Amino acid sequence: QEELSRKLGYFLHVEAHVVLCGTAGPENLPSSESRYVHTRDEFLTIGNPKNYEKLVQDTNFSHLFEGGKPRPNSDEALPIIKSFFEGPKVRPLPLKESGYLANDKPFFSHPHMVYNEFRATHKDNSQHRGLLRQWNFDALGVANAMQTLWTEIALRETRVGRLVRHGSATMQDYMLRAVRELSEEDITDDARELYELRRSFSRLDEILDSEADGWSKSDRIDRVRALLAPFSELHSLGIGHCDIDPHNLWYAGDQKSIVVTGFGAASLEGHNSLEALRPTLQSAPYTLPEDAFEEAVEPYRLDVFMLAVIAYRICFAGESLLTPGQMPEWRAPLTDPFSGILNSWFEQALNLEPSKRFPRADIMLNEFNAATKEHSQEFDEANQIYQELKQNKFFREGMNSVGVLIEFPPLPEQLSMVYPALAAIATTGSISYHCEQGGKALQVKLWDGVILNPQQPGVNRRIHAFKQRIDKITHINLPTPKVQSCGLLGQGGLYVVSEYVDGLPWSQFIAENVLEQSQRFTIAETLINTIHAFHEKQLPHGDLCPEKLLVQVGEQTAITLIGLLEFSDELTADNRYQPDNPES
C-alpha cells in the first residue's frame, strides 16, 4: 500500500456493484448490500454526474484529481498500477478446496472451457494427491444460466457414485473416490469437485504416450479388458458415460485396472437427460457419427464407439484414429500385432451406424475375449482367479461341513433329517435345511466336493463366477431371497445362507385359485415385469420354471424368484420349460 501510494500520490479505491437484469430488484436485500445492487435502468443513468454520485460511495477523492494527480486509467498511472500487480509483491490467490491446493496451471482444459482440471496436493501432506475439477458454467451461455441445470451437471458424478454403491459390489473400485461429496447448495457458476488420486494412479493418455510402445500382445489384451470392464458394469446399472476419453480414465498400476471419472454428460435412468448439451459438454476432441449425421443417440452404443477409439490406440501402438475436429473411422493399422483377428471386432464397434455396433460394453467385452482367446495367457488368468479366491474372506480355511451346521444349527424338527442327509452328501451332492438366527428364518444350502485347487482352473472359474453372482445379488434390490452368509470351505464344500421367503409355489397358486381373466392378465404382467427387472441387471435365472416362482398374495400380488444360486458342473435347468434346442 505504501509503495503504490507513494508512486501515485493516493491509494486505489475499488467498489463492487451488481446490476440486475429483467424485473429483479434489490428490495429484499439488507441495506448493507442493497446500496451496491441496482436495476438495469438505474445503472444506465450512471453517465449523468449527479446520478454517478448517487450510485457510488462518497469518497472525497475529487480534490486529488483537481490538484493534478493522475487518474488511475491515465497513461501516466496505468503502467504504475499494472507493474505493481504483476510484480513479485502480488501473487494470485491459490485455488484450494477441502485442504487441497491446486497446481497453478490446469493439466486439462475442456475444449469449450466448461471446466479445468488441476492436480492438487493436501496442504499438510504432499503425498495425498487429488484431482480438482473447477467448472465454468458461464461457458454454457446465457440460455443455460440456470442453477438447476448446473446442478444436474455438477452432481452427475456424485449421483453415479451413489447408484454404484447401492447397485454393484465391484464398480465402486472403478471410480475415483470423492474427498467431499457436493450438494445442491454447493453449486455455483464455478463449482468444484475434488477426488482422491492414489499414488498408483496415472492418467491413461500419459501411460499410452510413455509406455504403450513397449507393451506385449498380452499386455495390450489385458489393458483393453481393463478398459471395458468398468463400462460393462455401468451399462448393467443403467448408466451411460457419454464422454469417454483417456483424460477421464486413470490406470491403477497396483490393480491393473482402469478407474473412471468425468461423468458430467452421463445418461442416468430416472434423471433428466443432458442430451441437448452433450456436444458442448463433450471433452473428447472429435466429432461423433451421431452428431455428424444427426442420428438419435443411444448412450450405450455411443460409449461403445468411444471405447473402440481408445482400444485402437491401445492395440496398435503409435497409431490413432483421431484427426482433430473430425470423425474417427475404422482403418486397418499399418502394424498389427494381432494379424487381423480384431478387424471385425473394431469394424463393428466403430460402425458409423449406431444400430450396427455392439449394444452394450459387456457384449463388446465378451466378443473381444472370444476374438483373443487363443492369444491370452490362460495360466496367468487362472492363477489370478485362484489367488483372488484364496485371499478373500469368502474362503474359510479350516472350515468344514460340520462347522457350517454348528454355526447355523438346523431347526429341532429337522435334525433327524439333516444329519443323515449330511452323511450321504457325497452321493447326493448337496443338502438344504432351515434354521433361525436373531429372529430371522433362514435357509441353508450346502454343496459337497467343491475344492479350491490351483490345478483345477475350470472349477476355480466356476467358483469365482458363482461368488460374483452372489455379490451381485447381495448388492441389488431385486425380489429374490437376500444372502445372509456364504463361503468356500477350506476342507471342501460351499454354502449359502439366505433369508427364508414365504409364499405359494406358482403351480400351487394357480391350482388353488380361480382367477378371472383380468386377474390372469395382472399376474402374467407381474411375472413379466419381475423377470424384466432381473434381465435389466444382467441376471438371467437360468432355470426358470414354476417351482422357482413364489407368489405372495396381498393387496398387490408379488412374485419372488428362488433358486438363482445353484452350484453344479451339470446342466440343472428343467428342460420342460426350454426350447428344444436352447443353444441355437
Structure description:
This is Nuclease. Residues 50-369 form the Protein kinase domain. It is a single chain. The chain has four domains: 2-86, no CATH class; 96-375, Transferase(Phosphotransferase), domain 1, CATH 1.10.510.10; 378-499, Phosphorylase Kinase, domain 1; 504-577, no CATH class. The longest helix is centred in the middle third of the chain and has 20 residues, at 217-236. The chain is 35% helix and 16% strand. Helix 16 (378-391) crosses helix 20. With 584 residues, it is an alpha+beta fold. The strands form six sheets. Strands 3, 4, 5, 6, 7 and 8 form a six-stranded antiparallel β-sheet that branches. The protein has a five-stranded mixed β-sheet with strand order 14-17-18-16-15. It has a three-stranded antiparallel β-sheet with strand order 9-11-12. It contains 22 helices and 21 strands.
Say which CATH homologous superfamily of the largest domain is assigned. Transferase(Phosphotransferase) domain 1
CATH class of the largest domain: Mainly Alpha
Unreliable segments (pLDDT under 50, ≥5 consecutive)? 569-573, 580-584
Overall 3D shape: elongated
Total helical elements: 22
Number of strands: 21
Structural class: alpha+beta
The total number of structural domains is 4
Fill in the CATH topology of the largest domain.
Transferase(Phosphotransferase), domain 1
Domain Protein kinase: 50-369
Protein name: Nuclease
GO molecular function, one term: ATP binding
